[in-house]
Structures are given as structure tokens and as C-alpha cells.
């Protein structure tokens, strides 16, 4: 990357040749960095997308019940769940049965260290300021209750469920934050590998990108590597982009840009309060569920009770596979009046994009989504393996391990390409940290060549 202009200008290779040599070099470095982790991500991702079928087999005794007669009041199920939990556990949220054979799920979290929440909130619910609903999901214990008999079917600690385990395996190899950065580093360089691969293929490479009959050896691997890489490019971009949105470092940058652009999802105004009415008790769980159901689409719901006499009920949709039915509302605890309401139409463009992209990434749109991701995962595995097959065939033929870098190749890229590089580094901090290391290695290689 750092050659000086020692060759006469008239003797330099063409601009296109120099540019392609630089792209090949960057493509190689991206593959070298990303491949180990990308292979793991692809394999664990294939496992993750079959979560619904696996959980249906493992947890049918918790998730499903036998419909019989009329359901009892939701308060009976909540009461049974609370009685089943040890003293001090704080009720965080309730998921009423939606389909006829659904169980009621009641989520509890342990008390905060040094304090007891029991008795401090209406309906025994966790104060809303203590933890977000999504954090509670990650640390809580869910009690499953039969809505027809109020019988406790069992409990499950967060992280023990297969979906949570496989998600952690996919995102951090079960190591929490200590290895989460590695998957993000791989995703960042996979984005580089994807973009450079497309640039190498296009324009004018259509004929080379379509596999030709009769090809064999390295040529066969090269054709299929290019063809599958380009055919999967759109899905690859969606998967990498959505994966980066919930990564640690790139995710922070993306969320900052989202907020700066005013693309955050509509949020309930701070300070919303319920108005106590004379001789009127606050709504119980069943009344709140009935009120919410009247004003929400036909979708599974999550209910969070008010934490104080002036607090409010929070209602959210609980089915990411139906993003167009997304709902978020706040209800007055006494009158049931809607104090805040945001549905799909109220969402920003960014929220809509992630509302569709993230469930797609997880294979939550049904069998077609799972099948497509299975084919995608298999294609990614082939692309990664085929790239290294070509590398070793190149070595076997006595060629250099690194793709040849033509003189002053680094000067061949247009200004817009370098602007794109800077933007990518701004969005993906781990790319910005690792790219200078690659540049340092290239500089050392250049020094060694000039001295030899």
C-alpha cells in the first residue's frame, strides 16, 4: 500500500489494474481477519434460526396448555405465580395468554441488593425506573401458569431457555462481553470483504461471475466463490447491518447517529401520571388486559403495572414476527384512558427498518425466513471455505501468499472511496482500531521489499 512512485509514469500499470490489485489485497486481509469468527457465527447462526422448533419440542409443557372452558381472571394466574416465588422477588411484567393454548407468563426479577421491593409497588410490580423491560428479560425468572386452572406449570431462569443460550452462543460464544468484541470485529471486516468483493466483480465482470460449465480446479472454485458472494450480497448486507445495530461499539455509534438524526422510536413523555378518581380503585390485571386488548391489534401483549398510586400501565406488543402490528401505549390506572399511543405508522424510518430487519436476521418470520437463512448460512460457509481453498491452491502453484500489489496502487482509489472508508471507520470503531495495524504490516512488508 505504501509504494513510492519510483517507476516512470508511462510504465505504470493501468489505473484499473492498480485499483484491482489494491482491492484484492484488502479483500484478502478482510478474509484473513474475519474467517475464523465468521465460520463460528455462521454455524451458530444456523443453529439459532431453528429456535422455534427446538423450543417447541423442549418447552411444550411450559408454553402450551389444554384449552378447557373459560379462562380464569388474569389476577388468579398472577397471584399463583407470586405465591410460587420466594419472598422479595419483584414482579416485572405479565404476558397474558393470547392463543387458546398459551400459558400465562409472569416475569420476576430478584430484589436489588440491599433493598426489598416487596410491598413498594401496586400489584407487586417492579418500579418502572428500576430496570427496562428488556434488561428484566435477561436476568429474570419466568413463572408459567395455566390460565384455565391457575396451576403453576413450572419456572425458568433467564438464560436457561434454548433461545437465550443459542443467542449468547452466536453473539459472544457464551463468554459475555469478553468475546463479544470478536464477533463485532469479524462483522466489521466481513462488511469490508463484501464491499471489496462486489467492487472486484462489478462492473464488467458479469461473465466471469456466472459459473461456466467445464471449469475445474482453482477456476471452478473462483467462479462459484464470486457467483455466490454476489448473489448473497443483499442478504449479507442486511445481516451484517442488523447485526451491527445491536453490537457493543458499532451499535453505540449507530444509536448515536439515529438519535442525532431524530430517528429514535416514539417514546412516551416523561412524567405521565394517572389521575385518581373518587371511589374508584385502580385497574387490576384483568381489567388492564381487557382495556389494552380493546385498543391494540390482535397480537400477544406485555403488561407492566404501575409502581405507585399515580403510576401508569405500560402495554407493548410481544411478537417481533409481526412488526406491522407493533404497539406501545400508556394507560391511566383508574380510568383506562390512553395517555400515549404509538403503532407502526408512528415509527420512524429507522425504527421500521430495524423492526423488519432484526426479526428477519433472527428467522422470526416463519419457515420461509428460516429456509432462506439456512441457504444463506450454507452459502456463507462455502464462500469462506472456497476462498481459502483458492488461497492454498495459489500457494501450491508457487505464487505469493499475498495477492500482488502493483506500484502506487494505494493512489488509484478515487476520493469518494476514501470518504467511504472514513465513514465506515466512524461507524465501526473496531474497524478503525484494526485497520492501522494492517497498514503497519503493509508498511513493514514494503520496507522489507525495498531493502532486498
Description:
By secondary structure, the protein is an alpha+beta fold. The chain folds into two domains: 216 residues, no CATH class; 160 residues, no CATH class. The protein has 16 helices and eight strands. A four-stranded antiparallel β-sheet has the order 1-2-3-4, with helices on both faces. Helix 7 runs antiparallel to helix 10 and helix 10 crosses helix 13. The longest helix is centred in the first third of the chain and has 35 residues.
Number of domains: 2
Shape: elongated
- Fraction in beta strands: 5-15%
Secondary structure category: alpha+beta
For the structure shown, list the relevant keywords.
single chain; 452 residues; alpha+beta; four-stranded antiparallel β-sheet; 16 helices; 52% helix; 10% strand; elongated; disordered N terminus
Quick description:
This protein has 452 residues and is of the alpha+beta class. It has helices spanning 15-49, 51-58, 60-63, 74-84, 133-139, 162-172, 177-201, 206-209, 217-231, 233-245, 249-260, 285-294, 349-362, 367-396, 415-427, 429-451; strands at 90-95, 104-109, 141-145, 152-157, 301-304, 312-317, 327-332, 338-343.
Amino acid at each position: 500500500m505504501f509504494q513510492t512512485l519510483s517507476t516512470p509514469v508511462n510504465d505504470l500499470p493501468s489505473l484499473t489494474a492498480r485499483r484491482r490489485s489494491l482491492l484484492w489485497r484488502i479483500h484478502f486481509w478482510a478474509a484473513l481477519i474475519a474467517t475464523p469468527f465468521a465460520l463460528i457465527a455462521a454455524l451458530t447462526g444456523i443453529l439459532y434460526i431453528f429456535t422455534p422448533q427446538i423450543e417447541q419440542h423442549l418447552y411444550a409443557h411450559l408454553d402450551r396448555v389444554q384449552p378447557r372452558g373459560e379462562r380464569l381472571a388474569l389476577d388468579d394466574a398472577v397471584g399463583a405465580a407470586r405465591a410460587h416465588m420466594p419472598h422479595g422477588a419483584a414482579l416485572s411484567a405479565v404476558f397474558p395468554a393470547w392463543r387458546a393454548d398459551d400459558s400465562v407468563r409472569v416475569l420476576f426479577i430478584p430484589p436489588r441488593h440491599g433493598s426489598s421491593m416487596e410491598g413498594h409497588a401496586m400489584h407487586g410490580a417492579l418500579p418502572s425506573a428500576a430496570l427496562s423491560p428488556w434488561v428484566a428479560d435477561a436476568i429474570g425468572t419466568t413463572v408459567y401458569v395455566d390460565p384455565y386452572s391457575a396451576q403453576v406449570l413450572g419456572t425458568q431462569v433467564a438464560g436457561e431457555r434454548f433461545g437465550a443460550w443459542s443467542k449468547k452462543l452466536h453473539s459472544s460464544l457464551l463468554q459475555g462481553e469478553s468475546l463479544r468484541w470478536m464477533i463485532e470485529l469479524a462483522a466489521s471486516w466481513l462488511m469490508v470483504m463484501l464491499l471489496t468483493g462486489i467492487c472486484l466483480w462489478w462492473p464488467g465482470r458479469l461473465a466471469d461471475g456466472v459459473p461456466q460449465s467445464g471449469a475445474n480446479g482453482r477456476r471452478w472454485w473462483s467462479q462459484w466463490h464470486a457467483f455466490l458472494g454476489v448473489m448473497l450480497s443483499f442478504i449479507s448486507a442486511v445481516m451484517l447491518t442488523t447485526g451491527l445495530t445491536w453490537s457493543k461499539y458499532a451499535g453505540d455509534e449507530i444509536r448515536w447517529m439515529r438519535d442525532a438524526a431524530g430517528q429514535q422510536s416514539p417514546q412516551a413523555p416523561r412524567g405521565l401520571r394517572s389521575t385518581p378518581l373518587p371511589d374508584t380503585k385502580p385497574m387490576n390485571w384483568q381489567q388492564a388486559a381487557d382495556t389494552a386488548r380493546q385498543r391494540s391489534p390482535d397480537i400477544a401483549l406485555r403488561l407492566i403495572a404501575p409502581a405507585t398510586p399515580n403510576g401508569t400501565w405500560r402495554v407493548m406488543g410481544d411478537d417481533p414476527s409481526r412488526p406491522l402490528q407493533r404497539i406501545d401505549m400508556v394507560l391511566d390506572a383508574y380510568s383506562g384512558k390512553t395517555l400515549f399511543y404509538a403503532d407502526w405508522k408512528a415509527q420512524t424510518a429507522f425504527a421500521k427498518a430495524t423492526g423488519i430487519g432484526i426479526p428477519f436476521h433472527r428467522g422470526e418470520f416463519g419457515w420461509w425466513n428460516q429456509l432462506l437463512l439456512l441457504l444463506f448460512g450454507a452459502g456463507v460457509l462455502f464462500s469462506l471455505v472456497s476462498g481459502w481453498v483458492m488461497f492454498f491452491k495459489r500457494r501450491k502453484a508457487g505464487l505469493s501468499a499475498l495477492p500482488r500489489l502493483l506500484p502506487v496502487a494505494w493512489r488509484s482509489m478515487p476520493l469518494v472511496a476514501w470518504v467511504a472508508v472514513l465513514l465506515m471507520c466512524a461507524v465501526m470503531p473496531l474497524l478503525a482500531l484494526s485497520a492501522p495495524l494492517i497498514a503497519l504490516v503493509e508498511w513493514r512488508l514494503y520496507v522489507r521489499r525495498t531493502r532486498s
